[in-house]
Every structure is written in structure tokens, then in C-alpha cells.
Automatic annotation (TrEMBL):
GO terms for molecular function: catalytic activity. Coiled coil: none annotated. It comes from Paenochrobactrum gallinarii. Residues 80-187 form the TIM-barrel domain. This is Putative TIM-barrel enzyme. InterPro entries: Aldolase_TIM, Pyrv/PenolPyrv_kinase-like_dom, TIM-br_IGPS-like.
Length: 230
């Protein structure tokens, strides 16, 4: 049986591809493919601007009145939830109007680490901010898919109402030993989550550009794979 795959796209898929589950992150469009996730996290990228424009205009989205009703159940809209200017409540009606039921926190601020992450957290722009925004969407009736890089983040996102987790191994680095260590950590997180018999949530693994066989073992234990589709 082939693995369940979700494509992370920079634009809505063509009608012929609508049967696939997709995550749409419009802010990725135009960013350099090499170091894509690094560029997406830069303050100058305005990562949420295109997502908000997509909701406002809707001209790139399938028209549900034209027989595309199933599109919404296959689509997740990505928002950078650590954005201090993102107001979740202002997006409820546009999301409902476009019949988008599921959102996710991508790119996630959790891809920062060390002093950078502590700085964001101290300014209330770190994981805590992402969890608060996720909770706001879930409480409003939307379904949440959460990108996480740690067991603590996974548990917090589940408490916030997310019903799907995407374990992200972190930014791609050329040193294979770092990638191997990251893959081992993801494996440990997955195993810890699986030990909870009451946890019936879907758990996927993100495969960033540049990762090779490091994550292969983890893929066999997860419910699916998320990878760039453009």
C-alpha cells in the first residue's frame, strides 16, 4: 500500500488534482526554492499577506457552485500563527465564505531554536502565540492541523483542539549527522505519542527539501507524509 501523502503547495491545485489532500501556503510563491523555509520565516516575507488576499478575492479558489463541493474537505489553509498582526476572529467569516474548514500553523515559528526562539517566546510571539491562535480557530469550529517540532508542542496543540499533527524535523542542514539526529528526535516524539492509547489523532511527518533516507524508518510508523508539491 502506498503511503498517504499530502502536498504543500503555494497555490490552489488545478481541478484535475482536487482529489489529493493539499496544504496551501500562498506566501511561499516567489520565494527562492533553495532555503525556502528559511526565507519564509524572514519578517520581510509578509508570509500571511497572500493568504489573506486569497480569502478576500477568492478568484483562485474552486467555485463550490460548479461541482467542487468536495474541494474544501481536501484543503488546508496555512497561516503563520506567530504573526503579531494576525487576528484570527477577522478570518472566521472569509474562511466560511470560501468553505475552507481546516487551517494549519505554517511556516511555524518553532523552526527557530536556541536564543532566537527564547526571544520570540519572551515577546509572546513563539509557540505560546501559535497555540493561542490554533485554539481560537478550533473553538470557532474550524479543524486544526498542527506543525510541531517537539513533544511539548504536540501536547499543547492537541489541548488547543488540533486533530492532526505534522511532526517537522526542522530546517534542512547539509550535515547529515544533524539530519540524522533530527530524525531520531522525531522518531522519539512519534513513539511517545503512540504510547498514549487514548490518542486517536492522525500523525504525519514533514519531509523538508534535502532530506533523504533519514526519515524512512519514521515514515513507516506514521499515518502519512507531507512534502512540497511545486
Amino acid at each position: 500500500m502506498s503511503a498517504y501523502r499530502v502536498k504543500l503547495l503555494a497555490a490552489p491545485p488545478l481541478p484535475s488534482a482536487e482529489e489529493e489532500d493539499v496544504i496551501i501556503c500562498p506566501g511561499l510563491a516567489g520565494l527562492p526554492r533553495h532555503g525556502l523555509e528559511v526565507a519564509a520565516l524572514l519578517p520581510i516575507s509578509g508570509i500571511n499577506d497572500r493568504a489573506l488576499s486569497l480569502l478576500e478575492n477568492g478568484d483562485q479558489l474552486p467555485d463550490a457552485s460548479q461541482g467542487n463541493e468536495h474541494w474544501s474537505s481536501k484543503t488546508t489553509l496555512a497561516l503563520m500563527m506567530a504573526d503579531p498582526f494576525l487576528l484570527a476572529q477577522s478570518l472566521f467569516e472569509p474562511l466560511r465564505h470560501q468553505k475552507i474548514q481546516r487551517i494549519t500553523n505554517y511556516p511555524t515559528i518553532q523552526l527557530h531554536d536556541g536564543d532566537s526562539m527564547r526571544g520570540f517566546e519572551s515577546a509572546s510571539l513563539g509557540l505560546t502565540r501559535e497555540v493561542e491562535i490554533m485554539a481560537a480557530f478550533c473553538e470557532a469550529g474550524f479543524r486544526g492541523t498542527a506543525f510541531v517540532t517537539s513533544l511539548n508542542a504536540a501536547r499543547l496543540m492537541l489541548q488547543a483542539g488540533a486533530d492532526t499533527l505534522i511532526l517537522h524535523p526542522g530546517l534542512y542542514l547539509r550535515d547529515w549527522r544533524v539530519r540524522a539526529t533530527s530524525a531520531k528526535l522525531i522518531d522519539q516524539i512519534l513513539r511517545s505519542l503512540r504510547l498514549d492509547e487514548n490518542l486517536k489523532k492522525q500523525i504525519l511527518i514533514m519531509r523538508p527539501d534535502g532530506y533523504g533516507t533519514e526519515l524512512d524508518t519514521v515514515f513507516t510508523q506514521a499515518d502519512g507524509i507531507v512534502e512540497f508539491g511545486f
